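Contributing new records

If you add data, match the layout below exactly. Sequence lines come first and carry their own label; structure lines follow with theirs. Keep one chain per record. Anything else will be rejected by the validation script.
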Amino acid sequence: MTKEELKAKFIDIYRSKITREGADKLLEYLTSPSSDFFDAPASTRFHGSYAGGLCEHSLNVYESLVDYVSRPRAKDLYNMNFSEETLAIVALLHDICKVNVYKPGTRNVKDEHGVWKSVPTYTFEDKLPYGHGEKSVYIISGYMRLTRDEAFAIRYHMGFAGNEDNLNVGNAFEMFPLAFALSVADMESTYYIEGKEE
């Protein structure tokens, strides 16, 4: 999909699923010149390291999460019965912390003949170093209220791959199944759907 098609898909899902008070203002911010959400990469050099990668990653996580929690085992055994709005909020907005932090740049690499050449890349420059998941919760909370399940899911979506205390991650996953489900969807999208730069 093109960047414009991804943006349109994101906005369509957002508007149809997220109706909470303040959601319209958050979408207004995301689509404004003050935000690069739809142009930003998802990372500097790995998954989604291209313009529009953040939006694409968010949509991949959304589709993976909806699929994961739709399994009978997740619903019946793990009691993962979350509203469509909750699934859209946590998946589409889990990485809102990445807005306005990636700056285009270049790096030098050797080509197949051993000759150095300059290639485009991104650098990370965070003007609000508030962490990762917690920063996303903080930004979203400035526009709309999150449920406790939603806040913990977004906060701990990096799971054991983040710079977290493992005991806290394990406790969060045990207490908030949505946190575990979002982490699974994020990892599936990152490692299997998107992969890393060739």
